[in-house]
Amino acid sequence: MTDRTVCLLHGFPDTPATFSELKDHLESAGADAHCPWLLGYADGDRCPTSLDDVVDALIRGWQEAGLEQVDIVGHDWGAVVGFLAAARVPERVRSLTALAIPPLRGVIGRGLRYPARLRQLAYMAAFQLPYLPELALARRATVEALWTRWSPGFALPAPALDAALTTLNNPQTRRNVLSYYRNLAAWWQRDTRAVYRGLSADIHPPTLVIHGADDGCMPAELFPATPVDAPQLKGPAKIVCLPDAGHFLHLERPKRVARLILDWLDAVG
Fold it and tell me: DSSP state, 182?
């Protein structure tokens, strides 16, 4: 593991701080782990114009750090960005681990077979409203409610919650993080249509998908049961569903998730 550079990409509504324990486990095994901020989340960041803009910023960060190849571990939006990066620059992505997000080609078809479970994604429609989502995310109760709903029965560690609340205390940051949802819904824009093509593109780097059976954000039914059910994944692939875990599985089951990642990295070389 000493030659592996792991790039840990956070999601919403969290920060790189949520990777603290997982990062420790990976580094204890010899990995060189990095936890960059997604574009728009760090204080002073500009608002992303599209998800491709986020990927551009990520790749620039690798170039500036002199990282030729990375193993991506992405959670939530970090996993979506990871899929896009793996499709665009497969020569730079040694492997991809997606936490709590399925391969996105075919996800709509799987969702239509379980329409009742799609209610879990209603928050994405609510985030399209003007002003109100920004006001809601300024409240501690809103952020706590999202974490509680998405990882039922899990008590969020205070440092992770405090980091998220501090980040979302900035009005510009709240607009920035909501732009991820709003840009993706703007289907009439050329940049958004390009993102759609990227999200359905073939993924050639080895890909591990891990999700929780009790995920209250992304329904387990939206995940393919096996790699055979995910033709988008062209390289070696593995899909794991963790019982008694929700959306923030890297916080709920950090040792188990770390072991799965390390075994996968060893397996794919």
Answer: H
Q: Which domain holds residue 18?
A: 5-268
Nearest to 257 by CA among 249, 265, 266: 249
User: In this structure, what CATH number is given to the domain that contains residue 201?
Assistant: 3.40.50.1820
Longest Cα–Cα distance in the chain: 48
* pLDDT, tens only, 43-100: 999 999 999 999 999 999 999 999 999 999 999 999 999 999 999 999 999 999 999 9
pLDDT in tens, 37-53: 999 999 999 999 999 99
Instruction: Return the closest-CA partner of residue 35 out of 160, 151, 134, 148.
Output: 160
Measured between alpha carbons, how far is 269 from 10 in angstroms, rounded to an integer? 24
* Residues in a beta bridge with 5: 32
The structural domain count of the chain equals 1
Sequential DSSP letters for 67-97: -S-EEEEEETHHHHHHHHHHHH-TTTEEEEE
Cα separation, 230 vs 95, in Å, equals 16
Which pTM value belongs to this model?
0.96
Burial level of 132, CB count in 10 A (0-12/13-18/19+)? exposed
**CA angle centred on 61, ends 58 and 64, rounded to 5°:** 155
- The closest of 20, 79, 248 to 152, measured between CA atoms, is 248
Q: What share of the chain is helix, strand, coil (3-state, %, to 5)?
A: 50, 15, 35
Alpha carbon distance 109, 113 (integer Å): 7
Radius of gyration of the CA atoms of the chain, in A? 17
User: What CA–CA distance (Å, rounded) separates 194 from 198?
Assistant: 6
